[in-house]
Amino acid sequence: MPDIEDPDEPDETDWAPPPPPPDTWAKWEPRSAQVFVLHALVIGAVAALRLVGVVSQKTANVLLACEAPALGCAWGGLIAFLIVRARERSEGRLERGRTLVLGFDLFTVVFAVMGAGFWLAILAI
């Protein structure tokens, strides 16, 4: 049976997702604090180990190099977050870049855990 359109019914508009609510990014606000805390933990731990004399300068450099990918991903996530949030606010619609921000977060965690494992292996020697 064919569909019969009601002539009194208004035309349907093109479907588009609704704009994000104003508090959508509220859970993401401490992002810059996350980058700062990650840097403080990594650099502070290496500096403390170096000042106490537990590790040499060369070993301290290797420890910092182990965490460099995590720090780079944290910065990438912060930059992607700022760009995506600005575009969402200016255009008023959901931005596909949220997946990129989530990817950077995931890689930050993966590289931080891997770096911690490398630290344990280096310091156990």
What does the model show?
The protein is mainly α and 125 residues long. 67% of the residues lie in helices and 0% in strands. Helix 1 (31-52) packs antiparallel against helix 2 and helix 2 packs antiparallel against helix 3. It starts with 30 loop residues before the first helix and ends with a helix.
Task: Give a brief rundown of this model.
The protein is mainly α and 125 residues long.
List keywords for this structure.
125 residues, mainly alpha, 67% helix, 0% strand, rod-shaped
Shape: rod-shaped
| DSSP strand count | 0
Class from secondary-structure proportions: mainly alpha
Tell me the fraction of residues in β-strands, as a range. under 5%
The percentage helix is: 55-70%
Q: Count every helix, treating DSSP H or I runs of 4 or more residues as helices.
A: 3
Could you report the average pLDDT, rounded to the nearest whole number?
83
| Low-confidence parts | none
How far apart are the first and last residues' alpha carbons, in Å? 78 Å
What is the ordering of alpha helices and beta strands?
Answer: HHH
Rg estimate, integer Å: 23 Å
The major sheet is characterized as:
none
